[in-house]
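Lab manual, section 2.4: Encoding a predicted structure.

Procedure: take the sequence of the chain (179 residues), apply the prediction step described in section 2.3, and record the output as structure tokens. A sample record is shown.
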Amino acid sequence: AHRTSARSYSHLSATAVRRRYYDAFAAIDDHNGLIRADQNLGLLDVARGEWTSARDLLEASLQAAQERHMHEEAAVSRRNLAELDWLQGRLPDALTHLGHARTLFAERGDRRGTVDADLLRTRILAVAGRSDEAAALLESIAGVEGGVSGEQRALVALERAERQLEDGDATAARRLARD
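Recorded output:
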């Protein structure tokens, strides 16, 4: 049985892995596959703290998605760039990317993508000192019905609990965390 795992590539740079993916996807003319590979490798580099490579890959995925009018993939790329911007302290850029991503998700009726963008936005707003906006957005997300995963509902509860802790209300935080 042929098996490929992430460990197979652990010794390679994202650039080397991308070349392998690029060759495979180009052979079958799969632009979507290459865009997703760039997104995933970009996120891997984000996790590794390799900011320059991460940005290059995520921007390449966004450019390719835009050139091919692949709005869902463009939204995902923008969301991922927003996360990178947030981690690098580039909060205005992060909010700009998230605004575009959210619009694209909403235009496609992608509730999960919209909620994901909103959840990241709450974190960025909180870090930016805009806690009232973050809290209002969290309440808005908590009221969304349908199309929201259990994982996202748990993340909303966790974010709401963290906001309560920051406000010094441990009782409310525990209640939210249990719900």
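Check your result against the sample. Residues 31-48 form the longest helix (18 residues).
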